[in-house]
Each structure stands twice: as structure tokens, then as C-alpha cells.
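tool=predict chain=A
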Amino acid sequence: MTIRRGPDLILHGGPVLPMEERAPGQHAGAASPDARVDAIAIGEGLIAAVGPSREILPLAGPGTRLVDLEGAAVLPGFQDQHAHPLVEGLQAAWLDLTAAADIPAAMRLLSDAAVRVRSSFEAELWVEGWYHPSAWRERRHPTRSELDRAVPDVPAILHHGSGHAAVANSLALAYAGVTAERPDPPGATIERDASGEPTGLVLGSDPVAPFASAMPSLTPQALRDALRTVAARLSSDGVTAVADAHVGWLGDPVSELAAYAGAVLDGDFPQRLTIMPGLARLAAPDEDPPTPDDIGALVPPDVRTRIRVGPAKFFSDGALSTADAWLREPYADAGTRPPELVRGRPAHPPGELEERLRRAHLVGWQLATHAIGDAAVAFVADAYRAILADHPWPDARHRIEHAMLLEPDLLARAVEIGAVAVLQPEFVTGMGDVYLARLGDRTRDVYAYRRWLDAGLPIAFASDRPFAPGPPLEGIRAAFRMAGPSGRRLHDDPGPSVGEALRAWTSRAAWAAHDEGHAGRLIPGLAADLVVLSADPTTVPAQRWASGLDGVEVLATLVGGRPVFGELGGG
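tool=predict ok
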């Protein structure tokens, strides 16, 4: 006699939102109009069936666990296709100076931390912290001399909250050999005083580059602890897949990949991972970079179903918060900046970056280029168009990361070449007031979601965590709020629909990574990566999302059908 075992798990009794793409105007993410989809069956880590309970519940066998959702909603797990998980985990051990009221208070915290380092008798340790000038009364970077007074005898480096600036004390500069004669490394501009001496401030896409070789190597245990920490955070936020958007940023891509692989094998990192190597560190501008297969060969075979190679990461400019995003017109608050800095600057000489992009495209990489200012976006769009014209690649989905400032001509250009915009809504809630000061009326073209979507620009949402808080539900709230800490909105664009915002974190995010055949939707055969929310998010008006009164929270997260956060009931 044959006994049908049935699915491993059936969730029923609440809305199941597949997040499949819908025709314009159709209620995004909802059930089809002739059926109430309120059940999902899972077997062997995959979605077995989705439909109404009357069709799904009869599939149950003697080994099936039945869970009544009691009105909770099931969606595809959130996909964060631009984050820095390892940096976030390490940052948890850094000194947090953002809560200090001013620079003197921050320096006292730094001095206390140095005392703890000295008492540890670990001579190689550096003091590391992170800060954001907008949190301090002075609204500026600390200086080298301020760090020297607080920490004269231990190397210290402070990381700007955007990731696009760092400040070091004299001892750190000496250890790293950063002198008046030291040229700027790729992706970093060493600020210098009138005599040519480094001031301690480094700006750019890779501000840690001058110090990377001198800083103590991260131990395998430190890397594993960091990944365990961030994986728990991601799980509680409903994130089932995440991309490391600059593998190699910490200095050694092999060590980083080994840490990820070990954490995956031991169950400490349940999320599915996409790696995006920073190719500017792996090849000179006139050299062919490693291919995707070359990088993939570094991933141990037994984790290749969980760690995949995604786009190559490049930078075309810096950040608006550090005033080195590359603009077509001067910053509104340029003031007395030197003439060469009033519009920000490119991260690399444009000809060099275009050559890097072309070589990466030719060896098979999907491209993902950081571009925040409108001049940077224009450059990247033109480079993509030229590269694709010379070497066509149907459905390349080359990406513009952040793409914050898109005037109408740039929007049309991005749509024409089939670029994908990967956006971070929480940038605005954190730094919207700074953007208003830096850009003035030009903020009308910052994340104008409705206008961009109506023009046909493919949009995926991501966090860039830890440089923004990161929970996708907070990202949805931010997309509707469109205001900084003061509450002043950047513009009156009505924003996406709730369904569009959800798809930007699920199906469209997976599509942006060429991973839509594996995850991002709740359809049979795809991975059973899903999030259980306390309510149907599509029934909550955008105004309630904007005010934070939506009442939606993550109850449980499943990867491959296995709970990694929260509790599933029974019955």
C-alpha cells in the first residue's frame, strides 16, 4: 500500500500574496479576482502549491504540518540586493558616536574606548568608531588634531555613516604610511592642508583604502561572529536573500568568502547570498578583470546553491552627505569650497572607469555602478549605452545603484538603455534635510517614484545597510514619507502604490539580480523563502505607511521552508 506523505508544511487562513507582476492598474500582489488565495503548501524546501484553502488543504498527508495563520499574511521573503552584511556585523563592535551631542562628547567616548584597548594588551588593535556629522551640534567632520588629543597613542579611525569618508589620527596615518608624498589610491581622496600634509580626512568611494594594508587582519572568529550577528538581524527583518555589494571592501575577498561559506555551512547565516565583487580592487584599469566563473570558483562547492555570483560593483562618485556626489550644477551650499569641488567629483577619471566597465561587460559581468549625482548618472548611462551598442547583450539589466538624482533627460536615457535602478528609500528619512540644503529645488528629481515608474524605469528597493537602518518595512514607510528628520518633504510626487513598493522588495529585487527563476515570488517550484506579516500590507493606505501607523510587523521568516525567525503555530 502506498501512503501519500504530502507537503511538509501548509500555511492557511490568511492572505497569500504571490507578488507576481500584474498588468498596469491591477491590484498588485492581490489574489486573482475569482479566487481567494489563502493557503500555500511547501515541500522539500520549495513551494509546492498556492491557492485557496479548499484546494490546498486536501493535499495534506500524514506528515504534513498545518499552520493556521489566523489572518496573518504570507509574502515572498524580502530581497535586499544592495547591502553590506559583513560590514554591518563588524560595525556592531565599533564605537557608536552618533548618540553624542557634539564633537567634544564624541571625543570623550573615543578616549574611553582607547583606555579599554590599552588595557587589553593587544598592541595591534585599532580603535574604530562610526559617526555622522548631522548628529552633532557642529555639523562637521572631526579633525585629525581632535582625534590626536583624544587618542594620542593608539591608532584610531572613524567611519562616516555614509561609508564615503573616514577620519584618522596621526598614529593611524603613520602606520598606514599616509604622508604628503603618498598619492591617492583608487576610490579615495586624501584631504591635504595648504602645505600638502594629510588632514586625516579621506573622502571617496573607498575611504578605507589608504589604511587597509596597515589595519590588523580580521580573525576568522571575528568574521564569523559578525555574520552571526547580522544574520539574526536580517531574519528578524524578514530578509531571506541579501547581496554583499562590495565583496573585497575590507581588503581580502578570499577571507570574506571563506567566512561566508563557513557561516552558511554551520547554519549561522541562513540567508541566500549574492556576492558583488568590487572589481576596481582586483584588476588595474588596463587589465581584464576576473570573470564571474573565476570568482565563483572561490566559493566552496558545497555552498554554491546558497552563495551565488551576482553583478560586479563599481563606483562613479561619492555621497551627497559628504558633498562628493558628482553634480552637473554646483551644490546649493557650496559656499567657499574650492572651485574644483563645488560640483563634487568623479570617483575615478571618467575614461578609466569607462574602460573598467567595458572590460567587465566583455568578460560576462552584469554591471552595478554606484551613481548618486546627476553628472555621475549621466556618465554611467552614456557608458552603458556605448558599451551595449558596441557589444550587445540582450537583457543585460546593467544597474545604477542609488540613482538619486534623475532629471527628465536622465530618466529617459536610463529607460532607453534598459538600466535598472536599485534605490534606498531610507536615505531620505535619514538625510533628507541635508539633501534639501545641498540641492535646493533639485530635490524635485530625487526619488520621484511615481514619475519614474510611469516612465517605465525598472525599480528595485534595497537598504545599503548598515549605512541606513535596513528593515524593508521601514524602507516602505520611507518611500511614502519622502521627508527627512525635520518632516519637510522633498517634493510632492505621490510615490508608488503599496503593491509596487512590496514588489520592489521582492519580485523586482530578485529580477534585478537575475534571480527571478529561483526566488522573489510565491509560485510552485521556487524556493520557499517567505515572510509572515501581522496584516495584509496591501490593505493599509499609503498615508498610514507614511505616518508609521500601518501596524505591520514581521511575525516569522522562513528560508527553504525552515523558520529562521519567529514562531509558527499549529492547527
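The mean pLDDT is 91. The first strand starts at residue 9 and ends at 12.
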